[in-house]
């Protein structure tokens, strides 16, 4: 029960990596607040988790500042504390060659990945700093360490998330708050299955061909799993992770080797 008595807020918490992290935290005794847009799906996930009042769902859009800040405030108010923030929500958005990339698509990538992380983190820091303890875990990507064609906006956004992680870790480390990024490689979640065909088309290939290519770029020659990402998040959230801060931890099967 590594997280017994701890309260975690997870954006994008009803599917994929967010749900996997939520399940790992709940299994270790945490109370968890999930944030996503679809209220019906949120209610369904709470029922499936089957942990009673240890989990709540709050509906909102990470591209809306008031929704994000409201989620943090409601989590702290409902559970009486906020110990862990997982900024999981984000995505690649419109993938286009640079010459075709619109201002609107670039802005969307920044808001979805960077501003959402900034808004949630800034709001969560107050209770953490007052308590003198906290964990902030930002979901970045291997694109936060290198890049690939047509991923320009997403790559820029995830580099920004990593930069925010490094600077904030220096700022709040002495106050007892750790700040880290996880940089996953390919994980075939539902969002990848749903949006992947469009990504593959932008890259000039079929979906299965793209998945195979990404897997072959790694040392392990396969996609990572949700459970492998969640295990690292659990370490960072626990007392055993207290000495890790300002890190961009790759869980990508050896794709980005730095």
UniProtKB/TrEMBL annotation:
Highest taxon of source: Bacteria
InterPro entries reported for this sequence: KR_dom, Sc_DH/Rdtase_CS, SDR, SDR_fam
Ranges of residues in domain Ketoreductase: 6-185
Name assigned to this protein: SDR family oxidoreductase
Family membership: Belongs to the short-chain dehydrogenases/reductases (SDR) family.
Lineage, opening ranks: Bacteria, Pseudomonadati, Pseudomonadota, Alphaproteobacteria, Sphingomonadales
PROSITE patterns cross-referenced by the UniProt entry: ADH_SHORT
Organism: Erythrobacter ani
Record Pfam families: adh_short
């Amino acid at each position: 029960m590594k997280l017994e008595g701890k309260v975690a807020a997870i954006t994008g918490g009803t599917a994929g990596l967010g749900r996997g992290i939520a399940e790992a935290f709940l299994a270790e005794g945490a109370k968890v607040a999930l944030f996503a847009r679809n209220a019906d799906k949120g209610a369904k996930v709470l029922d499936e988790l089957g942990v009673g009042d240890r989990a709540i769902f709050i509906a909102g859009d990470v591209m809306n500042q008031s929704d994000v800040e409201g989620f943090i405030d409601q989590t702290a108010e409902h559970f009486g504390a906020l110990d862990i923030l997982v900024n999981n929500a984000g995505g690649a958005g419109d993938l286009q060659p640079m010459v075709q990339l619109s201002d609107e698509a670039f802005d969307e990538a920044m808001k979805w990945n960077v501003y959402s992380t900034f808004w949630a983190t800034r709001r969560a820091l107050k209770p953490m700093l007052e308590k003198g303890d906290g964990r902030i875990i930002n979901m970045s990507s291997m694109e936060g360490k290198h890049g690939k064609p047509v991923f320009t906006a997403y790559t820029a956004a995830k580099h920004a998330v990593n930069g925010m992680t490094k600077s904030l870790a220096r700022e709040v480390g002495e106050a007892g708050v750790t700040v880290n990024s996880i940089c996953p490689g390919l994980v075939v979640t539902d969002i990848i299955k749903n949006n992947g065909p469009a990504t593959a088309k932008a890259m000039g290939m079929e979906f299965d061909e793209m998945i195979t290519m990404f897997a072959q770029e790694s040392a392990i020659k396969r996609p990572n799993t949700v459970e492998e990402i969640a295990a690292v998040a659990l370490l960072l959230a626990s007392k055993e992770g207290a000495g890790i801060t300002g890190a961009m931890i790759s869980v990508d099967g050896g794709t980005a080797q730095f």
